[in-house]
Design a protein that fits this description.
Blueprint lengths: L7 H17 L13 H30 L4 H22 L7 H30 L1 H5 L7
Length: 143
């Protein structure tokens, strides 16, 4: 299903984050111009989290806030996604404390990838089916 225009910015950010996930996995394939050394991966994820992930989570949590209380199934899903945001943020924050950074980045990448898939395939679909008028009212420039 094609996503509502209001979800397009989030989906575009998801695509960038999915690339990051593929790069951070322990079995990552080489990408031209992208180093695979652990220290370089860590520097890259720090940059991406600051530039993309933090504002992305803020946008999603704004979306969750305006959707809350309108549909019980959506509310339950929003709660799951909020818990996952917290878990992913904790995993990211704990990276520098890990003794096996490669494994920690792999786990972060796999958790983030599963989370994004849930948002894209489950949350966005339910949101479009149950709250299309609400999506029509969203303007990201104000965020």
């Amino acid at each position: 299903m094609v996503h509502h225009v209001a979800l397009a910015p989030l989906s575009h950010e998801h695509q960038r984050l999915l690339f990051v996930c593929s790069y951070l996995k322990a079995d990552a394939a080489a990408h031209e111009g992208v180093p695979l050394e652990t220290a370089d991966k860590l520097a890259y994820i720090v940059k991406v989290f600051q530039e993309v992930m933090v504002p992305h989570i803020q946008k999603e949590e704004y979306l969750f806030e305006i959707c809350a209380g309108k549909n019980a199934a959506l509310d339950a899903l929003i709660q799951e996604l909020l818990v996952e945001h917290q878990q992913i943020s904790r995993m990211y924050s704990a990276l520098t404390e890990q003794t096996n950074l490669e494994t920690a980045m792999d786990q972060l990448a796999r958790s983030l990838e599963a989370h994004i898939q849930k948002e894209e395939q489950v949350f966005f679909e339910q949101l479009q089916q149950n709250q299309s008028a609400l999506l029509d009212s969203i303007c990201w420039e104000n965020q």
